[in-house]
Design brief:
Elements lengths: L1 E5 L3 H11 L6 E6 L2 H11 L3 E4 L8 H7 L6 E6 L5 H6 L4 E4 L4 H15 L3 H9 L8 E6 L2 E6 L3 E7 L2 E6 L5 E2 L3 H7 L5 E3 L4 E4 L3 E6 L5 E5 L6 E4 L1 H11 L2
Parallel strand pairs: 1-2, 1-3, 3-4, 4-5
Antiparallel strand pairs: 6-7, 8-9, 8-12, 9-10, 11-12, 13-14, 14-15
Length: 245
């Protein structure tokens, strides 16, 4: 797995690189001292994971994530401050590791990362064969004591809620323990569109499209709730290409 380290302290980057040498599955392919450098590296190198500091000159790690609308790898925060842990998981971070980083704690993060990218060889073929789910497919959803068996073409919106995704269908909105990225991989891209880092919409539920700030778009969904979802500037380009003649 390809990794990038983003930290304004050179000694901290060097120490993390040294620790990561203990894990043959990780290859550090770049490092950045700030978020501007990080953006360029991610676009050029397409890493699998970013080890991201929070407090840096210019933009903080959180500010950068809020603005970033391109390809986003897995994020592991590395920081000396423990008060940001809850917020880290609200932005779908894979893990949150406190400095000074201990090898045992880093090993836990790498195990989480490996579990995201590795599948047992015996099941890989069957998972791939059933990878994409279309509108006619039915899914089983359980949230607490409630259960649903729902066709995907009834799901109008998927919203990231930290380590969970909230599904919106009819007047229901259960939570499922799944990341938005992993859900996106299973959904038919002809029916479901990734609008931004937090939302996937069912294209058949879009009722209105309006220009929005910074070159983006805003869509309004059908139904009593009429949810309004922003399409980021980068995704707006894809959206227009997808729906144009």
């Amino acid at each position: 797995m390809k990794a990038i380290i983003v930290d304004d302290e050179r000694l901290a980057r060097n120490e993390l690189k040294r620790l990561l040498e203990n894990f043959p599955s990780i290859e550090v392919i770049g490092e950045a001292a700030n978020t501007d450098e990080a953006s360029q590296l991610i676009e050029e190198l397409q890493p699998d994971v970013v080890f991201l500091d929070i407090q840096m000159p210019g933009k903080t790690g959180f500010e950068w994530l809020e603005e970033w609308d391109g390809f986003l790898p897995e994020i592991i925060f590395t920081t000396a401050f423990d008060e940001y842990a809850l917020k880290a998981f609200e932005v779908n971070a894979l893990d949150y590791v406190l400095k000074p980083i201990e090898l045992a704690r880093l090993s836990e993060s790498i195990q989480k990362l490996e579990s995201r990218f590795q599948r047992p060889a015996s099941t890989e073929k069957s998972v791939t064969a059933n990878h994409v789910l279309g509108g006619n497919d039915q899914i089983f959803v359980k949230d607490g004591e409630k259960c649903w068996f729902v066709r995907l073409d009834r799901v109008r919106l998927c919203e990231s809620m930290g380590n969970y995704v909230r599904l919106f269908f009819d007047d229901q909105k259960p939570l499922v323990l799944k990341s938005l990225n992993s859900l996106e991989e299973r959904l038919d891209p002809k029916l479901f569109f990734r609008c931004n880092r937090k939302h996937i919409v069912n294209l058949n539920f879009i009722e209105k499209i309006e220009p929005w700030f910074s070159g983006g778009l805003q869509v309004t969904l059908k139904g009593e709730k009429a949810e309004k979802i922003e399409i980021s500037r980068r995704q707006s380009i894809r959206f227009k290409e997808l729906l144009s003649l």
